[in-house]
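Thread: Newbie trying to understand structure tokens

Hi all, I'm a second-year student working on a class project, and my supervisor (Dr. K.) asked me to get a predicted structure for one chain before our next meeting. I've only ever worked with sequences, so writing a 3D structure as a token string is new to me. If someone could post the tokens and maybe explain what I'm looking at, I'd be very grateful. Here's the chain:
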Amino acid sequence: MQRPQPKRPRLLSFIAGGAAALVVAGATAWALWPQPESDPDPFPDQPESVYHAAEVRTFDNLGTMTASSALVVHGTAVEARPGETVVLDDGSEASVTGREVVVEVDQVVFDRFGIEAPETVVVAEGFWENGIGYTLEGMPWTEVGQSGYFYLAGPPPALREDELYTYVHETGRVLIGTSLEVSIPGHWQEEGPWATADLADGASTSFTTAIQSAAEAAESGEAIPELISVCVPTDPADENSAPLCWEE
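---
Reply by user tm_fold:
Sure, no problem. This is what the structure looks like when written as tokens:
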């Protein structure tokens, strides 16, 4: 397949609504808006504020979320770094720098596209603006050294322009601590894909069993993916050019 023309940066799509519609905390009266220092670190290690996401997909079970993922891996975060800096196209002229987490992969749990197993994956997780770090509400930044499972969204290999993935859902990250405690963002015990899994004891072994069972269901076709259509102009300079579309 012929490689497409350069398209909108994935970071910009992520922030502007490619995977979710984001609203930065501080846009409403009740939210806190930290005041930057006179000469702040442009990329602090910890976030100071949050943004909110309206998910475009709702997963009722783990099998569906697994089948909908481009890639599900188990691995360890080995680096957190500034990524691409882009100017938002919402008229604000604000520029943001994406935060990238590099995950060293030790197991590919599910691979929807059948690509070669990667040694590392790079995940978009939060961003910096004016020396302030922002994280998705209820989702602390992954820190270097933390291990777990990552449910990732991205275009098919023939349409990829970079190595960056996003989370397929806000609950698409399972961090397992050294004492085997499990951390999942959101209200996973009350609703969503993890609430329907058999995780009564909350131990990491229960999560591992549920994750593997869901991957087997996705591989066999028993679990049906819930995909979304993503379209970008073939010519980034002309929004009216013919769209390039795919499902992810």
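A couple of things are worth pointing out once you decode it. The two ends are 18 Å apart (CA to CA). The longest helix spans residues 204-220. Feel free to ask follow-ups in this thread.
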